[in-house]
Write a structure and sequence with these properties.
Layout lengths: L6 E7 L3 E7 L5 E7 L9 H14 L14 E8 L1 H8 L5 E6 L5 H4 L21 E5 L2 E4 L12 E3 L5 E6 L3 H13 L4 E5 L8 H13 L3 E4 H4 L5 H26 L10 E4 L5 E3 L11 H15 L12 E6 L4 E6 L5 E2 L2 E3 L2 E3 L3 E2 L2 E3 L5 E6 L2 E8 L17 H7 L22 H19 L6 H24 L10 E5 L3 H12 L3 E4 L6 H8 L2 E12 L3 E7 L2 E7 H22 L7 E11 L6 E3 L14 H13 L8 E12 L20 E7 L2 E9 L8 E3 L2 E4 L4 E4 L4 E4 L5 E4 L14 H25 L3 H5 L3 E6 L5 E4 L9 H13 L8 E4 L11 E8 L9 E8 L28 E5 L2 E2 L1 H9 L13 H29 L1 H29 L5 E6 L5 E8 L5 E4 L15 H16 L13 E4 L15 H19 L11 E5 L4 E4 L29 H7 L2 E9 L13 E8 L3 E6 L21 E5 L5 E3 L3 E6 ...
Parallel strand pairs: 1-4, 4-12, 5-6, 5-10, 10-11, 14-23, 23-24, 32-34, 47-48
Antiparallel strand pairs: 1-2, 2-3, 7-9, 8-9, 12-13, 14-15, 15-20, 16-19, 17-18, 21-22, 24-37, 25-30, 26-27, 28-29, 28-30, 31-32, 33-36, 34-35, 36-37, 38-39, 38-42, 40-41, 40-43, 41-42, 43-44, 45-46, 46-47, 49-50, 49-53, 51-52, 52-57, 53-56, 54-55, 54-57
Helix pairs in contact: 2-7, 4-5, 8-13, 9-10, 9-11, 11-12, 11-16, 16-20, 16-21, 18-22, 20-21, 22-23
């Protein structure tokens, strides 16, 4: 019951609809749904909803054009997509960026990776800022071993870190630059300066000057989110400056419709699931404002109100299916927060609920492509919407459900059609499905499928695509999916709840009585939250901590004392703020957290403490909590490694506004059937009862199949399931086990699509296990690995598309072992290999292969394998990537075939001997980090075991003959897609063959001739390619195949399974003794990282697909006996027909991320002097090539520098169709004396303190005649539709594809 006889309003303003849940005086509940935009009827949907309810309940007229009185309103709580939509549509406030001089393009470059490996246009969302102001200022972290002899003033940061103030803010220059921005009409400014997370003084100066000059909104990164790493912090502050003014305008517009606004209490939902007053609601914390309410709603209801009869509560999976996408999340008694995710191409670094999105919703479009049923990711949206909306829209999942009888038009309002006065259009839907069915049957060579079978097939494919992220957040993190409750909500969730639960083995589905408006209902259950957070840089168990507070340097005796003091301060801040909002002290709780990580790792975990002990902080034992969470997430701990505190955080909660829902009347008669309809399931139509939820009472039970309908949702209870009504009107469904339809070995297009998902899911889940259980930075954090599934003859079945240079390459390794070992492969054996002649790429990539045996089968029925990059395997230089190696043994351990596990026993002793073996060669060393090698190889074995388990599970369900049959069909499907593309090329060819010639910097030719038959068969003939080289640019056969597979996949231009079939129509001719046919002892490290790029260039040149990209990875290594650092650097992408080349991005066979400037300077003895685009280096053309980058590093002590690069000689990145060539790169060492030394493409030199390495990366070639370009037109930025995704799964995908 609403307190004080007043109304409480909970309003979720979505992109299409505004949902309202209102508590009225006396306990009455009102639910309302309005269009979010209806300017002809009302100016603001939430205010209109409030007006209608007040008018109806109070019985007094309230004209729509007059302000509302606040006297009857206790509070208003809102969730809104205003910020999200502004970000997606790029309709925020005009914004400028102020950043440290030399880093003007830092946020444009970002982490230098591209979001889609196979998108040659490198489509990326535009930046949020229009103009950049480079601030003349610089601070540099102090380092104890720095030998630069700096004499600048030393300041102490808030983390206790000492910094040199190398250059204070040049205010005069700043004023001049800001005035130019103001003259353009820009009034919002985002400020991010290097190391401002610990030293905010320079940002504060910029902020004061900007406000004084007339900027109406200024966001400082040190205030928005003071966490280390300049790039995500910069993205976040830009989002804040871009979105907060929009939010303020919306709030002002909303409140302008009320009288006595000073008495109006409005709270907004933040991305972290907590409410905040409207004056504190900002853009960077508003991105998930809408969906966060739904998470709170199901968490509080499905978990805390779980009806388990005294049993232990089960964790809950949230399944929110809307029109364009489905959100999944997990709740186990506490909210799962993440502190960095990517939304619409923008990295947001702020506390947010971990909500992962898959592009499969009711509006997801259905198509039949290359023999596969495809659902999404494209969506029909609200306009035109599905075909049945009568606005000319495409077929969608909603249409499929209507076709199957699972949606009943007679229960829908007549709001469809051009005039929004028509019912759902069944004839339009049926016409669309008939055409689609004809297309499917024509492709399959008969009339095998009915319209209903096709529609059901698409629903099954949609269900499988929605199950994948759920498996990832459960099985992928070590949890049993079946031991969860599935909480469904959203407009389309109830239609698929039973199918999703059956597919996942979940036995209980929970659907709240207000599931159709759960995001609004969740606002009523949410806490009011105030968070306080500050950066830190101490060891958890250290002594004598110095830190800066109010410009005073303070020293305490221990880390525990320091952490307790800071937690106390932050707790007081939270309590004070919540008391100001009207909460009593006993209504406030505070939750302390520390952001902890192992030293020299990048996997921090935000930890709440366990119970305090004598050897812990007063606030609790954070170390025990961290090790517990780390072991659960990653499968191990690192006992002797120091634990670093990155951030100190307190979350204050005001809990004074909770309430209990009203119970339903208990049933005293069977439920009333409103009507009986026909629904289509496996096997045909079945009589299905229809019930109205408003007529159901507590205790009613309905056996499936049946449909439950209310005003906001439709729930399908499938055969074998039973629905019951809880005390408070919620629907609980007991899910029967899934009855797998009889699947034969003949080709079925529906099951082909499902098996495609399942095979790829096996490879992806193997990758999750490998990432969880590995220990090295390269595998755990950079995710430099690939996992794959192979058939019994070694043919690739599914390869998760993560590392381009790994694509298809492992197939060669598996086939070699099958031939090499013959019958000597037994259950319990695991094989290790990395030799180029055995299908390897380069030696640091260690491949682990495991046979999959099945009962009553003598030979392996499948193989699983993974390939991981080990940062150290010995050789003549640390990092095992020497620039001047001439023989393979100089690059580290070489293994053709070694049983890493034999008869189930891990062969550690033999492995150690192999890892030490390079040390027997002159000038060479064994592995310098054997411990990490062993740990990562154990993780690789564990990943394969996961793959074996999943393969056997699939065989148990479908039988071995069926699984192997569909393995072959998937390969044939990929073959068909490639053949179709090659046929199209052959029809447009003007000669018997295509040809191209490219050169390495040393003049070695790479000659390619491609002949294509009318049947879509191609021969890639590299005859004429230069001979084997004495250096390390020789490329193994596996690398050549990977390059060809990558190019073919790019040219197909739509998703196809990456497997053996892609290369089946291709014959590859590699001349003996050429640079593409290394001897067994030839050095190959450069072939894997450099020659592979030239191979791609020559293939695309032959096909005339696009101009050349930078053609290099710009490998840079520096270090000494105590440390080592390795990076690859971005360049320019080639232009093509219809697109400009992207600048400052990695291209083709690599997609590695670059270390954030603040992390680089914090951990390594260098200062990054500048990092920006090298403007004007891209080739001119109708479409211009992308620019390279300029990157300068100043060395702080003596080190050895090695560079391994290409495109430094006379051969420029080519232009096409009259486009100009891109500029080549350049490597320069600037000595402390000022003398410049050209390092050429390959170098290994000693550097001294004060020396600077300047890398200028190659650019991309132009496309088309430059004379067609108007001189006044500059290169427009590449833009794209908003990127799908969000949450930890999407972030993981981006991380792995940019490993």
């Amino acid at each position: 019951m609403a307190a004080s006889g007043k109304f409480r309003f909970c309003i979720d303003r979505g992109g299409t609809f505004t949902d309202v849940y209102a508590q009225c005086p006396g306990g009455k509940v009102r639910v309302l749904k309005l269009l979010s935009e209806d300017p002809s009827s009302y100016p603001d949907a939430p205010r209109e909803a409030i007006r209608r309810i007040l008018e109806q309940e109070l019985g007094a007229p309230m004209p729509a054009n007059e302000p509302l009185s606040c006297s009857a309103i206790q509070w208003i709580r809102m969730g809104t997509t205003v910020a999200t939509n502004a970000l997606l549509e790029r309709k925020g406030e005009r914004t400028a960026l102020a950043i440290t001089r030399g880093f003007r393009d830092l946020l444009y470059i970002g982490n230098q990776s591209r979001p889609d490996l196979f998108d040659l246009t490198v489509s990326m969302p535009e930046t949020l800022y229009e103009r950049v102001v480079e601030v003349k200022e610089r601070v540099v972290l102090c380092q104890g071993d720095c030998q630069l002899g700096l004499s600048h003033p030393v300041v102490v940061g808030s983390t206790g870190e000492e910094l040199y103030e190398v250059e204070p803010v040049d205010v005069a220059s700043l004023r001049q630059d800001l005035a130019a921005v103001l003259a353009l009409g820009i009034r919002s400014l985002a400020v991010v300066l290097l190391h401002s997370y610990t030293f905010p003084a320079h940002e504060q100066v910029v902020g004061e000057v900007a406000r004084e000059m007339g900027f109406t909104h200024v966001s400082l990164s040190s205030q928005v989110m003071p966490m280390v790493r300049a790039v995500p912090r910069g993205f976040t502050v830009c989002a804040d400056a871009y979105l907060t003014p929009c939010i303020k305008k919306y709030v002002a517009g909303f409140t302008s419709g009320f009288k006595d606004k000073e008495h109006l209490k409005v709270l907004f939902m933040q991305s972290d699931g907590g409410l905040t007053p409207m004056n504190r609601f900002v853009g960077s914390r508003a991105i998930l404002s809408g969906p966060a309410g739904g998470v709170v709603g199901y968490a509080v209801t499905a978990y805390h109100h779980q009806l388990c009869g005294g049993c232990q509560r089960l964790p809950v999976i949230g399944f929110d299916m809307g029109g364009t996408s489905t959100d999944v999340s997990r709740y186990t008694g506490e909210y799962e927060h993440i502190f960095e995710s990517t939304v619409a191409g923008v990295v947001i670094q702020s506390p947010q609920l971990d909500i992962s999105t898959v592009a499969a919703g009711g509006g997801s479009m259905l198509c039949f492509r290359a023999g596969l049923f495809v659902v999404g990711p494209e969506s029909a949206g609200a306009n035109p919407g599905p075909a049945c909306y009568s606005k000319g829209g495409p077929l969608t999942v909603t249409d499929a459900n209507l076709c199957l009888g699972r949606l009943l038009p007679s229960y829908f309002p007549k709001i469809f059609g051009p005039n929004e006065d028509q019912p759902l259009n069944e004839p339009a839907m049926l016409l669309g499905f008939q055409r689609l069915t004809d297309k499917v049957n024509e492709a399959l060579g008969g009339e095998g499928l009915s319209v209903q079978e096709v529609a059901l097939g698409y629903v099954r494919v949609a269900v499988e695509s929605m199950c994948k992220p759920i498996r990832a957040i459960t099985q992928g993190k070590g949890h049993d999916t079946s031991s969860h409750v599935l909480a469904c909500f959203g407009g389309a969730g109830g239609q698929h709840a039973c199918a999703v639960a059956k597919a996942l083995g979940i036995s209980t589905v929970y659907i709240h009585r207000y599931s159709g408006i759960l995001s609004a209902y969740g606002l009523a259950l949410a806490d009011v939250v105030h968070e306080a957070q500050e950066p830190c840089a101490v060891h958890y168990e250290g002594l004598h901590v110095f830190y800066n507070i109010m410009s005073v340097c303070v020293c305490v005796d221990s880390t525990f004392q320091y952490l307790d003091e800071r937690l106390d301060v932050l707790s007081r801040e939270c309590v004070d703020e919540l008391e100001k909002q009207g909460f009593k002290r006993d209504e406030i709780t505070t939750q302390p957290y520390l952001h902890l990580r192992y030293d020299k790792t990048d996997c921090p975990i935000m930890c709440a403490p366990l119970k305090a002990t004598e050897n812990s902080c007063r606030h609790g034992d954070f170390k025990a909590s961290f090790t517990q969470h780390y072991h659960c997430e990653f499968g191990f701990t690192i006992p002797n490694r120091a634990i670093v505190v990155d951030d100190v955080r307190v979350r204050g909660l005001g809990r004074g506004l909770s309430f209990q829902p009203h119970p339903l009347q208990e049933a005293n008669a069977p439920p009333v059937v409103d009507t009986v309809t026909q629904c289509y399931f496996e096997g045909g139509y079945v009589e299905t009862s229809v019930y109205l939820q408003e007529q159901l009472c507590y205790g009613h039970r309905m056996e499936g199949p049946c449909i439950l309908i209310d005003t906001n949702s439709t729930i399908l209870v499938e055969p074998g399931c039973v629905a019951s009504i809880s005390k408070h009107g919620d629907v609980l469904i007991e899910v029967g086990s899934e009855s797998i339809p009889c699947v034969g070995t003949g080709l079925d297009a529906i099951h082909l699509s499902i098996f495609s998902h399942r095979f790829m899911s096996i490879a992806e889940q193997m990758g999750r296990v490998l990432q969880r259980t590995s220990i090295s930075t390269n595998i755990k954090e950079r995710l430099d690995f690939s996992c794959a599934l192979f058939g019994p003859t070694g043919g690739l079945v599914a390869n998760a598309p993560h590392i381009p240079v790994h694509l298809g390459a492992m197939q060669e390794a598996v086939k070699f072992q099958i031939q090499y070992l013959g019958g000597d492969v037994r259950e319990g054996d695991v094989i290790l290999s990395n030799h180029p002649s055995a299908g390897g790429s380069h030696l640091p990539d260690l491949t682990v292969i495991t046979p999959v045996f099945y009962p009553e089968q003598e030979k392996p029925v499948f193989f699983v394998a993974n390939r991981g990059h080990h940062a150290e395997i010995g050789g003549i230089s640390p990092g095992s990537m020497p620039p001047f190696s001439k023989y393979l043994w100089q690059e580290g351990m070489c293994v053709k075939s070694f049983k890493l596990v034999q008869n189930g026993v891990f062969q550690e002793e033999g492995l150690v001997r192999l890892l030490e073996s390079p040390g027997t060669q002159p000038g060479s060393s064994g592995s310098r980090n054997i411990r990490d090698n062993i740990s990562d190889l154990r993780a690789q074995v564990a990943a394969n075991q996961k793959g074996i388990h999943l393969v056997r599970e699939l065989i148990d369900v479908y039988s071995l003959p069926v699984v192997q049959a569909y393995m072959a069909y998937i390969q044939e499907n990929a073959e068909g897609a490639v053949r179709d593309m090659l046929k199209e090329v052959s029809q447009s060819m003007q000669g018997p063959s295509l040809s191209a010639l490219e050169h390495l910097d040393d003049g070695t030719a790479i000659q390619l001739s491609i002949s294509i038959t009318s049947q879509g068969e191609a021969t890639f003939d590299f005859s004429g390619t230069g001979r084997l080289v004495a250096g390390n640019l020789n490329a193994p056969r596996a690398v050549t195949l990977s390059a060809i597979l990558y190019c073919l996949r790019c040219m197909v231009a739509h998703d196809v399974p990456l497997n053996q079939g892609c290369l089946k129509p291709v014959k590859v001719v590699i001349p003996e003794g050429s640079v593409l046919d290394p001897r067994e002892d030839s050095a190959v490290v450069g072939g894997n990282v450099l020659t592979c790029q030239r191979l791609v260039d020559v293939v695309f040149k032959a096909f005339a697909v696009c101009a050349a990209s930078q053609g290099c990875m710009n490998n840079t290594v520096f270090g000494d006996e105590s440390m080592g650092y390795y990076e690859t650097v971005a360049g320019g992408a080639g232009a093509g027909p219809g697109w400009h080349g992207r600048s400052g991005v990695h291209t083709h066979m690599t997609n590695t991320r670059i270390t954030d400037p603040e992390i680089l300077e914090r951990r390594y003895p260098v200062v990054l002097k500048q990092f920006h685009l090298n403007r004007g280096t891209g080739g001119l053309g109708l479409y211009c090539g992308g620019d390279g980058v300029l990157r300068e590093m100043l060395f702080r002590r003596p080190l050895t520098l090695s560079v391994l690069t290409e495109r430094r000689g006379p051969y420029k990145p080519y232009g096409l169709e009259g486009g100009g060539d891109g500029s080549t790169g350049r490597n320069t060492l600037v000595r402390a004396s000022g003398q410049e030394q050209d390092l050429s493409g390959k170098a290994c030199v000693g550097v001294e303190p004060g020396d600077t390495f300047r890398l200028e990366s190659p650019a991309g070639g132009g496309y088309g005649d430059p004379s067609a370009v108007l001189p006044a037109v500059s290169k427009p930025p590449n833009t794209a539709a908003p990127l799908k995704g969000g949450g930890s799964l999407y972030t993981y995908k981006l991380n792995q594809e940019s490993a």
